[in-house]
Amino acid sequence: MDLFLQALIDGLLIGGVYVTIAIGFSLAFGVMHIIDFAVGEWVMLGAFIAWVLHSATGADPLLFLPVLLIVFFVAGWLLHPAIHRVTGGRRPMPVLMGLLFTFGVATVAKGAAISIWGHNIRTLPTLFTGDFIEVMTAVVPTVRLFAAGFGVAVTVGCLLLLYRTKTGLAIRAVAQDKVNAAMLGVDVRRIAALVYGLYAGVTGMAGLVIGTLFTIQAEMGMRYTTFAFFTVVLAGLGYLPGVIPAALLLGVIQSLVAIYLGGAYNLLVLFAVLYVVLLTKPKGLLGKGW
After folding, report:
1. In this structure, which topology does domain 2-280 adopt according to CATH?
2. Which end of the chain has less Cβ packing within 10 Å, N or C?
């Protein structure tokens, strides 16, 4: 029972981190209808840039979260015109074109990371590293608790933006129907650039948080691309509120499988769960996705 409780808590905390990765991914798909294959590379670059800043200054990496938000927001904003050129207009199969383009971005980012930082593994210690609290019979690392809290805060912030601001209203209008939104005076291209910049900024910050939990290496991107894709599909493509239960479920399954079956079976079980969900609920767990 103690082992199960530990696995359950660990899974929920890791799921909170996956929320941060998947929330931006889902938002970008809902507005731009693009499956971003480079999401894991945004995570990887966020972790490495945080490591560089920490190495150069000696400051706690968590202090650089606002810096990463700004840096990656600008990077996403600048990259958006290229994505729009590939997927916009009357080009055939825009989703596939976007997938291929972001696959190329991911390949370039991974190659650049290997060239700059090599294959060596890095760590990103914080003031919380090594601290823990006890919850009944389970031990909860403080840094994981912070990471989960960060994921909840980002999710709440995104939902408040979407449902409590005029910009959020414009974003939802574009996600629902770009043509009608444009006829109502919404600058669709500017909104899409804003969303992609926000997505890149949030994902870059998630990379920093993940770097404080696990090791950092240039090849880590694909792992988190897979987790982000699993989470968004389980949530329902483009349905933001579904990301939270989907990410928590993913984290719990991963933790339980790792403890009771072994980490080597993680992806096998996750693929099986994804397959069953797609067969029974193709629009996601809550049935409200695309």
Report:
1. ABC transporter involved in vitamin B12 uptake, BtuC (1.10.3470)
2. N
